[in-house]
Amino acid sequence: MTASASAVPWSAGRWTHEPAAVRPDGDALLVTAVEGSDAWRTTAYGFVHDSEHALLAPLDPGTAVEVAFTGDFSGEFDQAGVFVRVDDEHWTKAGVEFADGALQLGAVVTHRFSDWSVAPVPDWAGRRITIRVSRAGDAITVRARAGDEPFRLVRVAYLAPDAQASAGPLISAPSRADLTVRFEAWTVGPADAALH
């Protein structure tokens, strides 16, 4: 994040659904997910899951949010990243999840129905991962990186310019009870100046 960015206190957010456990670890936050937690609406699977753990604060137009965490996952669909929420039927989650035996970088964009895009990033396992979501005009732009690598573009998705949106750290554990993620930073700052 740029020099004009500022840290968001963990206490500034509100959980969409309370995690199994939350505890400070220095400046970081250790969060343990409830087994079966997830976010999805209908497409391909026929079910609605609305049980993710997302710590949210307002995401105003012209701003960006970054969340950093350690990507140490082993359970099928273990996931962490950023959640952007307008309402139950309009939201985006972006980050990494463990699927098909490897860490995957991707996003789920939901406008009544969810879609999902992923790409394997097995070399990101165990590293500090940063997910950045920038809001400008009628779009959010998702970027991600591991360590100090350059950010890579993950997704550009529609978000109504007048939508009241909130965003922040996300964790879900669809298949197990003991996923704990160490969230190392949550910052906000100005939106990206350009898409490319």
UniProtKB/TrEMBL annotation:
<protein>
    <submittedName>
        <fullName>DUF1349 domain-containing protein</fullName>
    </submittedName>
</protein>
<dbReference type="InterPro" id="IPR013320">
    <property type="entry name" value="ConA-like_dom_sf"/>
</dbReference>
<dbReference type="Pfam" id="PF07081">
    <property type="entry name" value="DUF1349"/>
</dbReference>
<dbReference type="InterPro" id="IPR009784">
    <property type="entry name" value="DUF1349"/>
</dbReference>
